[in-house]
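User: Here's a chain of 222 residues. Predict its fold as tokens.
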Amino acid sequence: MTRLLAYLDPTPVWQFRSLLLEGLANTVALALCTLVLAIPPALAIALGRRHGPAWLATPLTGLVWLARSVPAVMLVVFIYLALPFVGPAFSAFASTLIALTVAQTVYFSEVFRGALAAIGQGQWDAAHSLGMAPLHILARVIGPQAAVVGAAPFASSLVLLVQNTSIASAIALTDLTQAALAVQNMTTQPSPLVAAGLGYLAIILPLVRLTRRWERRVARAF
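Assistant: Prediction complete.
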């Protein structure tokens, strides 16, 4: 019973609350910045692979597969520790942000490409027959339908993004995981790790609920 209570002891969490809150703030900041930076290139890659010419689609496909083959944690370590020997040096936050953006761009591009592929070619042909320009077709016809289809997997990718922010701990950036480990090492108590887990749940659970809501909406629509 005493060991169980150690997991629920709020004393270390409260004593080092500023460090844990700093970690939580960095986790949220990384997730939000990555989201903003990753969506535009992911959409461009998806459109290039789905509707671009072969000379563009083929190298983009190779680029996606190459990026998917590199673990994000290895990428952040390379950017932070190895890249300064031959190129620019980035801060721990910037290194993590770059690695997350590369990884998430790939994930988002696959979501967008799948959503675009779900819309039949007949939609494009019908819109073309009405004299609509390609960008107009994408914005007014294909885009809204693809947004409905891709909403649920996109929300799932957001959950993955929040989870992947923990790679920051590989280079000692104070994210939520790193902060909890630091407090646990200083206090030898497990409750900071429990608090970190609850912090992740507070971020992720609303995204999971959003995913389920979109899945139900898509199921009703189709």
